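Bench notes, afternoon.
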Amino acid sequence: MNNYFKLFTNIVILLLLLVGCSTNAEKSPETDQQPKKEQPIAVQGAMDVEVSEFLKAMGDYKEEKHGNYSFYVGELEGIPIVVSRTEVGMVNAAASTTLLIEKYKPKAVINQGTAGGHDPNIHVFDTVIGTEVINIGSFRSERMEDGQGMKPEKWIHMSTELRDKNGEKQDYASLPSDPKLVEVAKSVADQYKHGKVVEGVIGSGDWWNREIDRIQWFHENFGTSGEEMEAFAVAQVAHLLDVPYLSLRTISNSEVTDDNIEDLEKAGHYGAEFTIDVVKAIAN
């Protein structure tokens, strides 16, 4: 009986030792370590014409949908990239950017696409590196009595109030692109062959201005180079979630030059070509 008991005890001890070895092996740094997945660079465009060039350059990609927003995941010459079609408008831009950052954890967000020109010295197909973006839909008016009419040229621009990491409120008249990303974009400016590349201020709002006096008023009072409908909302979300942001916009039409060109498709493709060069430069 004692011999059987000793044999049983030895078997139990052996099994416990084997289980312990197996557990330790599973926890071993040599077997548990997984290569860290490289964070992608995120590129946004509101419309198909602003993202199609990236899909062509990626070749193989996977479309993923979150809500009604489309994200295209793949590589650009070995560089991990996620392309986001934000859809048009500030609310769409904010919602899709929040999903983009939460789902894909990008190392940088490039909001790019087309814009209408505000500066008479910036022509159709020129590309603007938006060193800062401003919400040109955020204004208040002083009280005027019934019958006194409307005076939009006297509207007062409202700053945007954001909280910092410590919960303190700060007011922003505009939001900057990441300075390092701006420098990267400038470093490849000479590769752009469809016009000039300039630094400027991008205005965002849920409207499309074609009144020349109004466009000139924005340019003279706020230094805007062009306007579109997404950049400020993207910059605001990226700022709040602490992700580096860059604004790039290619002029598709202008009421304040004599270009007499309005070509959304070409501007979308040209801007995407430049953004691809910027993505490569960021990765390198």
